[in-house]
Amino acid sequence: MTRPRDPALAYNFSISLAESAGTGALIQTTVGLPPQGGFSECAGLELTIPAETYAEGGNNGTLLKFTGRAAWSNIKLKRGVVTSADLWRWHYDYIEGRGKRRDGVIALLDDRGKAVRSWRFVRGLPVRWAGPGLDASQSRVAIEEIEIAHEGLRQTGAGSGSLADTVSNLFG
């Protein structure tokens, strides 16, 4: 059991996706709960604000710095291959001309399953899917990956309680 001021551990997280319009079923995959098979890795929770330089006329001693436009990294998710082809279908639907954007919540959980911190991305667009590397000489889990471009990341629900409350507040 962790103490309240101990840092959260990175292995306990949950990821939920829902159509951006707010309609449709919530796809929820949580680490360790079969049969969905949870995501084993999540990367790309990044925000960069580049500094723009301005050379002010008559001020030869310095360059002024101002904030530029925010840039969000793509979110990269990895999970063991399961019988559900939901990630493949979401990506392939764009090739077929019927793709739908999804919003998502990534929640970092404590040992009791309560959200320590959550991040919500909006208007997610699957830009890359990768299937497993297959090698008969190895006995490791087959991993599939999806990369999601999005239009913004918001930190929400910091210390707000259960994942159900966080998902309900964001999608309800």
Automatic annotation (TrEMBL):
What does the record give under GO molecular function?
Answer: structural molecule activity
Instruction: List the coiled-coil residues.
Output: none
Q: Looking at the record's lineage, which domain of life comes first?
A: Bacteria
Species of provenance: Alteraurantiacibacter aquimixticola
- This protein is called Phage tail protein
Phylogenetic lineage: Bacteria, Pseudomonadati, Pseudomonadota, Alphaproteobacteria, Sphingomonadales
The record's Pfam families line, in alphabetical order, gives: Phage_T4_gp19 (PF06841)
